[in-house]
Amino acid sequence: MTAEVDLLTGALLVLAGFATAFINVMAGGGSAVSLMILEPMLGANVANATNRVAIACANILGTANFARERLVPWKLSYSLVIPAMIGTGAGAWVATRVSNEQMRTAFAVVLIGVALSVLFKPSAWLAERVEPRLGWWGRAAAFLAIGFYGGFIQVGVGFLLITGLVLGCGLDLVRGSAAKMFMIACYTVLAVGIFALADQINWVVGLVMAIGNSTGAYFGSRLAIQKGAGMIRWLLAIASIGVAIRMLLF
């Protein structure tokens, strides 16, 4: 599926892509920005699918930035990306067939819980390393479910990933952000393939937005590395509340 994009629309897509990726790197929920632009243009299903093209490009570049600083916990990331990708395949398949309204409401409640935890229990999020709360099977089940959600709707999946990586696996926020980007890069490539087979991707729009996404991911990952967990914590709380309100009210 393709469509022409005029200069003004292209500029808007690039700016939206930049904001989306920057927010996603620093916290999560950036897809709420891109989908607000894409939904009126393409319709909900095609917007949901097209958004993944730019997300894949941004997270590949962001992962490379973190990797250059040796901040990606590769061993843990490899072990978790497999169940996440299995979940993603199932979620993306379901997304080509059903509505997502009930899942949006449930996820908004989860986001509010994440924001409250970040604000009122900062020690769990700011420590350089915390004791993992989940064993291997618990992690596999959690990331299978997170992958399903990511494949299904994507919006805000970064919140679930960062929560699982920090509270469930014991990473600090910076390394958790690095692992999050690697995992999203891997499973989004799979999701793109599934949506492409269903002919639900507008490739021109997706690739134009990817220009902004890639730039936003570069600057966002550099800032995350420089400023560390403290800044990420506040952005995570603000973005969680903002996306939850949007999901519940708009």
Average the pLDDT over all residues and give the rounded result: 82
| Percent range of helical residues | over 70%
How large is the radius of gyration? 17 Å
Q: Give the class from helix and strand content and strand pairing.
A: mainly alpha
Order of helices and strands: HHHHHHHHHHH
Task: Give the number of helices.
Answer: 11
* β-strand number: 0
> Gap between N and C termini, in Å?
28 Å
The number of distinct structural domains comes to 1
Strand content: under 5%
**Biggest sheet details:** none
Q: Could you list the spans in which at least 5 consecutive residues all have pLDDT below 50?
A: none
Shape: globular
What does this structure look like?
By secondary structure, the chain is mostly helical. Helices cover 81% and strands 0% of the residues. The protein has one domain. α2 runs antiparallel to α3.
Q: Which key features would you list for this structure?
A:
single chain; 11 helices; 0% strand; globular; mainly alpha; 250 residues
How would you summarize what this structure contains?
The chain is mainly alpha-helical and 250 residues long.
